[in-house]
Amino acid sequence: FVLVPWLDVEPGAVLPGRGPARDLLPGLDATGVRRRDDLVLR
To answer: Exposure check for the chain: N or C terminus, fewer CB within 10 A?
Structure first.
């Protein structure tokens, strides 16, 4: 899901109608999601 990478780039991100994106993280199921530090977005 894109919330974690989005917050890496923009820690104060706000999702319109939902509030601060960081407040949504505790409710996410991260099963099967893993960070890929070997990839770079350009």
So the answer is: C
Contact (CB, 8 A) for 22 and 4: no
Quote the Cα angle for 4-22-39, to 5°: 10
What residue spans define the domains of the chain?
A: 1-42
Contact status, residue 13 vs residue 5, Cβ threshold 8 Å: no
Interval 10-40: pLDDT, tens: 999 999 999 999 999 898 888 888 888 898 8
